[in-house]
Amino acid sequence: MDRKRIVITGMGAWSPLGNTMEKAISAMRSLRNRVEAQDSVLGGYRNFNTRLGAVVHEALPDYPRKKTRTMGRIGVLAAAASEDALRDAGLLDDPVLTSGDTGIAYGSSGGSAMAFSDVAGFESNKDVVYLKGSTYVTMMPHTVPVNLSIFFGITGQIVPTSVACASGSMAIGYGRDMMLLGREKVMLCGGAEEFSPFSVGVFDALFQTSRAEDPSLAPRPFDRSRDGIVVGEGAGTVILEEYESARARGANICAEVAGFASTSDATHITAPSADGMERCMRKALADAGLPPSAIGYVNGHGTGTELGDIAESQATVRVFGDKVPFSAIKSYMGHTLGAAGALETVYSILMQRDGWLAPNLNLTDPDPRCGGLDYITGEGRSADAEFVMINNFAFGGVNTSLILRKL
Question: Which domains, and CATH codes, for the chain?
């Protein structure tokens, strides 16, 4: 029996590249990043090594306070992206949302980081008055998907994916799996993250943040002169449906989720493993029933860290050789952490649609220790990529690979 085909029928993305598809593709085609000095946010904290970040500049929707009081900025970003995705799919007011046949798979590195200040006050002052009734539910790891379920009245299965940098892509993969199992008719999937001193401080404490004086030159994945991560924020949402059902209702089909895999390195909590990454990519290809030669573009994780860039590029060369076009969208918007996989999925679909692959920004001198890939540079590249792969690799050795097919 043939496996059901699961497709994406709606997309929404709020990121440093903008809050619409038109803004995002225009930003990528401008060949300029959206990294800026964040002195107004980070300036009040001592001993930061970095001053850089990438944030969403558009004003968030003015939702009723009753709907947002347990969300934090991370939840509102997710709600805005999800509302756009449901509208794009033609399902925003559809009864299927509240029927029990729609589920949510959504992830983030954690909850709203600003709620942690309540805990800090509680611990440092030994006084419960610092804790609010909303503190825990705003910071809990599954705050985004449960708040989305309440916001939209979605009563199906909840699949929280709080796995750091792989959260968004894992949500899409697990959402597809739920549909292949016949558990839901529709899945709302994605990832979100908010910019905060805490999210920057985590990487700064590991000496993994960029110290570039010129924000336009950071990050610079795979370049010999790279010097670390730039933390970003945003939310990306996709709507999944079964192909025949989507066609029957006349839905616009953005892409098919043709393959997915997730693996664990089981080696080191922060150091990446090229072997684990390679195994994940090969499993995704096997899941899709494709040879490596079928992939027309790989959207890399590309954080701009030494160990990460070297391991990822070497693993990718092992799988694809030196011919597959390769670039990293993080060079435009920084590392959006839990939102990264979802946003990079949306933007990869836009590139498939337009037949144009965005180049790696700031890659002028590839590190010879990195794998000898076909790094896209310059003005980008025209290409008809039927299949693309999106890779994300997270702390803890959690790897994800998604394969999308253009329809």
Answer: 6-248 (3.40.47.10), 259-405 (3.40.47.10)
Active-site residue 280, yes or no? no
Q: Out of 189, 254, 280, 301, which one is annotated catalytic?
A: 301
Comparing CA positions, the residue from 254, 96, 105, 100 lying closest to residue 175 is 105
Is residue 57 annotated as a catalytic residue, yes or no? no
Crossing angle for the helix pair 72-89 and 143-152, nearest 10 degrees? 50
Question: From the candidates 142, 165, 280, 370, which is the catalytic residue?
Answer: 165
Contact call for residues 114 and 123 (beta carbons, < 8 A) = no
Q: Let me know if 335 is a catalytic residue.
A: yes
Alpha carbon of residue 235 to chain centroid: 8
Look up the pTM and report it: 0.97
pLDDT in tens, 119-156: 999 999 999 999 999 999 999 999 999 999 999 999 99
Residue closest to 362 by CA, chosen among 225, 204, 231? 225
pLDDT tens, 52-70? 999 999 999 999 999 999 9
* Amino acid letter for position 176: R
